Amino acid sequence: MSKTRQLEPLFYPKSIAVIGATNKKDKIGHIIFSRLKHSGARLFPVHPKEAEIMGVPAYPDVAALPEKIDLAITTISADKTVSVIKACAAHGVKAAIIIASGFGEIGEEGKKLEEELKAIHDEYGLEILGPNTLGIFLPETGLDTIFVEHGDKALAGGGSIAFITQSGSVGTEALGVASNTGYGMRAFVGLGNKILLNETDFLEYFYEDKQVNCIAIYAESIDDGKVFLEKAKKIAKEKAIIVLKAGRSAAGQHAVSSHTGKLAGSDRVVNGAFHQYGIQRAFDEEEICDASKTLSMLPLPKGNRVAVITAAGGYGVMCTDYIEQKYPRAELKMAELNNKTREKISEINLSFASSHNPIDITASATDQMYVDTLDTVLSDSGVDIVICFVFFSPPGFSEDLIDLVAQRVKNSRKPIIVFTEFGPYTDGLLKKFYDRGVVGFSSIYRTVRAVRFLEERSRIVRNLGGNGND
For the chain, what are the domain ranges? Predict the structure, then answer.
């Protein structure tokens, strides 16, 4: 059975039972049930004392449910979960999400509960996500089991990134910040303790999802690393895979064990394996979001030659330093513009502008000068990637430049990435760029780092003989 068919009840349930749903607004069962009312699925709240939950008829226990259920979500305590999950399996429920903590992460007693849950799966075939998980969020369909704030209104769907995370907090906080300036999430999956369904299962699932072109994973431990790597190598030919593997230091590995109840492997081995099997590595929550956003939206470059267009010379100098800096992820270099390109740039701009790369069109330029310069640079065969510094404080620039740059991004086979700053309006401008299909960042470092991810991905695709995500 394909992963799409196997996990369909988890991602596209037609009916959902929420066990522990309640009318008490401060309880997790209430928050999740209220979110699910937008999912389009038939909802069946289960509560031993409530006759109805938020106007929906409630049932005293799982056995009383009037029909077979695709997905059960349990919001009850760990000590009550095993018996309820067994009742779900006996009733024909196909998949379950266990929200509660208090399992393997607390020690031997919790691990025994996990073994009982595995036995239920073995007997009935019930798929289990978790325990100790925030569950699943699909912006497009409204399926949302996350009970903490997570930028759900900003993450409105239409994206192509699958975000798989072992830690719910890392995922929700990172995505909440990323959504301020735009982040195209297709799906969020919280793995929790992953007693059955793990990162490899969802790697396979999203490989089969045609709407996903980039898979981002936060992992503290990786189950069956050999299988994971072999699957990743196959998938990386077509889709970018970025992994933030925590627990790099000895103390960090000990913290992983305390957090999840699982052991973490040697970081040197992990690093080498990722490199060999086409997995790109992120080292913090900002980097995994920046990388996945960039790789999901931009075409891959044919080479590593970067042109920089700016209206502020000092920023161009700093950017040049970052580009020319030796870096193990991927080496970049400043493109050498041909004579025809430089002559055209001089004709377009004022006499005191610089036609050398980095190209400084100065703060006296206009919107039209900027985009004419961009068109000229894009036509230079010696340029593989363009970084556009777009500022709005000079008098000749307006917000019309957002649409003008976006038109070039849409029609260009070369990646174009934007850096912009404009005081308190910066995030808003970056979000406007994103809404028009433009990747942008608010620091030079992050912008150049994103370009390195593109070049690294391009090298991976060449080495694996794949076709990338074009």
Answer: 1-132, 148-297, 299-464
- pLDDT, tens only, 168-207: 889 999 999 999 999 999 999 999 999 999 999 999 999 9
**Topology alike, domains 1-132 and 148-297:** yes
State both tokens at 447.
Answer: 């912008």
What is the dihedral sign for C-alpha 378, 381, 385, 389?
A: negative
The 161-165 sheet, strands edge to edge: 143-144, 136-138, 185-190, 161-165, 214-219, 240-245, 280-282
Structure confidence by residue, pLDDT tens digits, 384-403: 999 999 999 999 999 999 99
H helices of 213-332, in order, are 225-236, 250-260, 267-276, 285-297, 313-324
Q: Residues 299-464: name the CATH superfamily.
A: Succinyl-CoA synthetase domains (3.40.50.261)
Side-chain-side CA neighbours of residue 403 (13 Å):
3
The per-residue pLDDT of the chain, averaged, comes to 94
Cis peptide upstream of residue 358 (ω within 30 degrees of 0): yes
How far apart (Å, rounded) are the C-alpha atoms in residues 363 and 193? 54
Phi (first) and psi of residue 31, to 5 degrees: -60, -45
Tokens of 433: 């760029």
> What CATH class does 148-297 carry?
alpha beta
Whole-prediction pTM value?
0.94
d(CA 230, CA 187): 23
- Assign domain 1-132 to its CATH architecture: 3-Layer(aba) Sandwich (3.40)
Per the listing, tokens 């900002």 go with: 286
Residue type at 402 in one-letter notation: I
Cβ-contact 188, 176 below 8 angstroms: no
